[in-house]
Structure formats: structure tokens, C-alpha cells
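Q: For a teaching session next week I want to show students how multiple molecules come together into a single three-dimensional assembly. I've collected the sequence lines for a complex. Could you give me the predicted C-alpha cells for the whole thing so I can convert them for display?
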Amino acid sequence: MPELSTKKVGLIACSGEEIPEGTVTRLAVRKVLESLRPQHTVTICLPLFLAGGEGDRAFARYYPTIAVDGCEKRCAARGTEMYSGKPAVSVVVSELAPANSSGLGSARRLSETGMQVVNDVAERIAAHVGQLLDVPWDRRSGLSLHDSPLREEAKPQTAPCSCGSGIPVKVVEVAGRQIPLVALPLIFTQFREAGKLPNDSTKTELMQAARIYNPIPHDEESACAEAILREYAAFCQGSD
Amino acid sequence: MREKVLIVPCSGIGKSLGSVAREGAYVVTEELCPDRTRLMPLALLVLDEKETRIELSSAEAITLDGCVKACAAKVVEGAGGAVAHALQVLDVCRRHPNLKPSGISELDESGRKLAHALAEEVKELVENMTGGLRNA
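A: Of course. Below is the structure for the complete assembly, covering every listed component.
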């Protein structure tokens, strides 16, 4: 049975070892991962990302990411954009805590003030995570898709994935347009194996699952739900 | 004047051994060989800035990696730097089987000891590279 992981947000800390702000990024991200949003976040290893970690690059192409940088050089944000896609959110510690860097302590050992900044930055990151999980997001531009129509520019059967595994895509017709929906074949398989019949109740669940992986504007939800249910019915009948 | 040896630790935040590499780099650059070494953040290398390229091209580097993926060594080489020694924390672990580090945000005592053991190995390498015991 295919595993469909819940949508998660990737956190990329610059981890800049030279300045206390870099340490703040590292500790703040760890706090979000360990205690504030453990179910909804993963860390993307910046060095592995830069060294050619295909899995990490693929994740950042597919899921929203938050780059957390210590200074205005924005190594994490720029590295992510260079090797994968634009981060959905870019947090810069020196902009959030513009006070004298030395007040934060040293890069090796943060002061009490520095640890307070860690908490503040972690809270800020956690808030962004919540927003990203609720708001449709364009992985290419890093922008919200609340007000834009569903993309029609490509009709791939498999979403490009640098790890080579590929993420299956199903193209469905919504209001006369061909729309590629990522992961839909996996969702269909999972639902069928769970014995879910193609009815109104299942339609709601299908939409919830599809929305995890696809940005669907509010004004197209109804038409999209009908299209997905229609495709699911065909899938169950083996005529897909 | 000879350039300082660049100490480039893995900057991973997902494993204890990455934290050991980082702490080991701090011990070398702040305590054991502050006059002969300089810590270089890995993330900085991605930007390909002129200043960083010059620094990389004019000095040798010792990379400290937390896992076999050897990101620090790969990134330095990819940026055109000369890796004089590529150390793996795992190798240091094998030489000190009694030390089993844990903790990421904050290393436990075992992790701190391992970082010091790593740093001592780096210190020897730095002394060999720069000749003599200038900091001793």
C-alpha cells in the first residue's frame, strides 16, 4: 500500500558557525522540530543540500520550505533557490533582532538574551509553518495561490523528482481545462484499498487528501471535487 | 606570512556527530590553535563570493564531517578549495569507543569529550601543516 505522508514544511537553517545569529538559526529550528511543530516539519540539511543530496533537493522542490538565515547574506535562502526552489518564507535573524550582535553571546555559547531570541525566532517559524499548511502555495514562485487560478502550464504524468522515483500525477478535466493533480493516483489506490466507495462522503475525503498535495483555489473547489470523484469512480471500475 | 588553515565543519543539525564536528571546530579555532586557524562556515561557500574564493584559494582546509556523506569536504572541493585533510567524526568515534555522544542542540559530556578528541587530532594536523608549535 502506498504511503502518503502528510504535507510537511522543510526548515533550512544557515547554521552559520561564525556568528551568534547563525547559532540562533540552528537552535530555533531544532526547537520547532523537537517541540513546537514536530508533526509538521522536517529539517533539510543545508550542507547535504549543497553537496548534492538529491533527496533533500527533491523535497524542497515539492514541499514548501522556510529558510532561516542569520544575516543578510541569506546563504540558506539563496542556496535553496539555487539548487531547488524559492523558499516560501525567508526568516533573517539579524532583521528580527537588530540589536548588537554581541548581546546575543558568542557563536559557541549564546547568552540569556540570545536564548530569548532563539525562542522568539522559533515562535515566528512555527507561526509560518501553520500558515503554510493552511494556505495554497506555489512551489516555483514561493507565493500564495489564494487568488490565482489553477496552473495549466504543464500536463506531466509524473512530477519531476530529482531522486528519480517520481511522484505520480493524474490529469483531470476541471471546467473544461486539463489540470494535473499531484499524487492523485496514490490517493486513489489508498482509498480503494480502504474500501471507500465513490460517493459524496468519499468526495469530501478525496478533496482533503488532494488539497494536501495541490494548491486548489477556493472558487474551483466544487468543480475540482466533482472531477476527482468522477475520476475515482472510473478508477474503481477499472476503466481508468 | 602563512595563511591560516581553514577549519570547515559540517553544519548539519540533524545528528549528534554533526554537533561534535562543529564543537570540535570551535575548540580548535578558539582554544587550541587560534592563531593558525580560522573557522569557515560551510553555508558561506554557496554564495561564490569573490572574497570567499580568494580566501579558499590562498589557504588549505581541514574539513570535519559528521557523516560519511562528507558534505564539508565535497563543498570545499566543489568551491575550488584545497582540502588538506578530510576528517570524519565517525573515525574518531572508533578510536574512542567509550564515548557515545548524544544531544544535538546541546551535546552531552560524552559528545563534548569526543569534540575535544577530534580537536586534538586537528591540532596535530595543523601543527604539521604550519610547522612547529607556534601556539604551544
